[in-house]
User: Fold these one by one.
Assistant:
Number 1:
Amino acid sequence: MYVKREPLRIADVKVLPVIHPPFRRLAQATALISVVFVAACAGGQPDAQAGRGTFDPYEEQNREVHAFNRGLDRNLVRPVAKGYDAAIPDDIENALLRFSDNTSLPGAIVNNVLQLNMRGAIHDTARLFVNTTVGLGGLFDPASEMGMPPSTDADFGETLHVWGAEEGAYIELPVLGPSTQRDTFGTFVDFFTNPLRYVLENPAAAVDTGTGIGGGLSRRSKFSETIDQILYESTDSYAQSRSLYLQGRRFELGGTAGENYDDPYGSDDPTAALEDPYDQ
Amino acid sequence: MTSDTSRRSFMLSALAVAGTMLLPRPARALTEARARALVSQVVSDINDAIDSSGSQAAMIREFERIFGRYADVSIIARSTLGAVARRVSNAQMRSYTDAFRGYVARKYGKRFNEFRGGRIEVKGVREVKSWHEVVSTAYLPGQSPFEVRFLVSDRSGQDKFFDMFVEGISLRLSEREEIGAMLDRRNGNVDALIQDLRNAG
């Protein structure tokens, strides 16, 4: 008889409000209220992160979104990314990538401050200063060439994590792809707290959006083999991208190392150790 | 008579003592130095493979050799089966492990060309639970450096790595997900899975 693998086992997951991005002002207000709410729920929870299961109660809806995203990639993003890669010289593509990285720094600095990571905030500020001035507005990356620390890439999902909010359920977002409830909320807040986006009326914002998309396309073509392998070569691309996202994200947030990983060699019960280390 | 018996028992105990001394030690003899040595060897083999500009087939063969030699393929293969590993026969497990080795070699070996012009450096070792974790950094042209972590254990009787993490993504856990999906598609039929695996990757 075939034993189906056990699904989720995170005992008490706080369900964060899932935001559908409709109106900007309203959304900002909701964001603030929800932050307070999240912070409030998070208090007193020890570390439920250690559960480390795959909590996916919305699997059915998520799979529909995944099918949509896959179709979008196959019919639009992938061919456009290939065309973009072929049409734009590599040097320009890399410059635009660097520019798009540079515009994400202010948001990262804000999040570092919110996380009380002052060292990170200072490093990112220095990087922003050097790359914006010497690096001609971020088109070049003299900061890395000078050996400055790499950017922290702090985001609001990470801030929520630092504040003690739990990961919540796995969610696959339309267009944006894999996420969790906490990160969906984080992405949403990041979108509105990116200082460059505040000035939507300003032409710089349009440039930013343009290079943002360009950057995304560059990344799509740069990692094309990896993405193709996940989306089109794996047996269950939904499960594979979910697993990769959660592993990668948990690693970014610090905590995949050692402690949450079980010895596959086991000792007492020869079979228990063969269970997914995260399921225990 | 008595002296015979005592001589025999002496001989027996002597043999027994010698036997225990010759048996492999179950104690954790794996040291940081040995874990680091293993990974340095793996890394140097990989770097050599990257430098030699062979065909894709040659790359895959090379990767299969490295994987088979330095990784504990049987424990990785076994753990990707999850609970199913309990109900398969030894013969099935053997052919599964073989199919798995080939599958991993093809799947990852064909991506080796992305490492061309790059290099991997071992950065540090630490002991975690019953194994050692060797942290290295991969430098690939045109990409920011990223972390590659090897988990090394001697519990198979030899120093071998039983998992590899690229930026926190575990080869063993990811393949477990994939094998699980392949099994689901075949309604849990392990023989069908082995057939599929021989052509996959």
Number 2:
Amino acid sequence: MILTKPYALFKKDFHSELRTRYAINSLAMFIIVAISVILFAVGQEKISEGLAGGLFWVVIFFTAMSGLARAFVSEEERGTSLTLQLIAAPSTVFSGKLVFNLILVFCMNTIIALLYAALFESFVIKNFSLFIFAFVIGNIGLAVSSTIIAAIIAKAGAKGTLYPVLSFPILLPLILTSVQLTLFALDGISIEDAKFELAIVVSYDVIMLTVSYMLFDFIWKD
Amino acid sequence: MIWKIFLFLLISFVSVAGIAFPIVENPQAWYEFPNIPGLEENAKIIFFHVPTAWLTLIAFLMSTVFSFKYLRNKNLDDDAKAYASAQLGMIFCILATVTGAVWAKFAWGAFWSWDPRQTSIFALLLIYGALFALRSSIESEEKRATLSSVYSMIAFVTVPFFIFIMPRIMKGLHPGSADDTGAGPVINFQMNPSMLLIFILSLIGFTILYLWMWQVSYKSIIFRDKLYKHLIRG
């Protein structure tokens, strides 16, 4: 089957993650730290819906930047990337890492959304189906872009600081449109009215996915 | 040599004509520009702002084309061409941002108002910056060329979102925005033939200037690399 090899790779990542729980622990702590910083900064002020929607994506962006580079950087750190190059095709490696990052992004963003709904009075979603739709396609785009940039970062050898620098311009169309869509969902605008923004995010996902699969070979092969 | 003189004359003519030709209500003579409501004297910066913005994109396009060529042939000269084009693109991007901000101050009242076009030029600035940050972080020549080629191609596919899609769905002040009734940034400017001629001459002149600067720049990079290799081998 075409999916068994990526699944095996994903299972390897999943088991090694469960053994150390490095990414899960650090991401969970990062979410708590980032949200509490925002809460302290907000203080007793009552923030508007627009600000809550924007701050939601601030936390998502920085959490993704803190955790998602692990997928490839850990292979380089442990010196296992050469073995992976021998046993698997580049596209298989990318699929495996992408699935791992997708699951990580979905878990982390669901937690962030739940925390936001609990902690911010103005974060009340009026159009739930639009929010879920935008959330799912936004997360896919976030996972795809950050996985391919993580591969570049791992090969570049500069681990920490370069990742957000390289990712931000690539993610900017996605973030701008997703912020807009989150505001629409908070305002209770119908899916029909938001279809242009949804189409942009879907086309972004498709383009980034295609480009990533086409270019990953060049990054992965030394 | 001839075309260098031609370029000098062209750029001089465009600069003098663009700045000095008067703007009048009813243009009669060939050297008079029409008065565009809402722009008045500000309209003259179009001869310098639009070419820089145009070259920002052309330079990025050329950089991506040669990145693509590098990935196919693994010839380091192509990487030098891509790098040289990106350097020039960064310069033109800064110029476009600055001239745009100056124009915005007098036309819209503020240097910066996160208009969709301003956001997109800012994103291009970030892409160029990220490209140089990536290049400076890698020691090995081949690796640096490969990774920066891949990055510039990934970045290039996001550019249509900034240039063509965002400004058309978001409301903004720049011509060509969603709430603008005209067809595009230039068409609804009500230029008269002489203004249009100088505008197009300016585009041509700046494009030739870019091609020349690019040639000088990539040749010097290629020679420098050859010299270093020669010195290392002894």
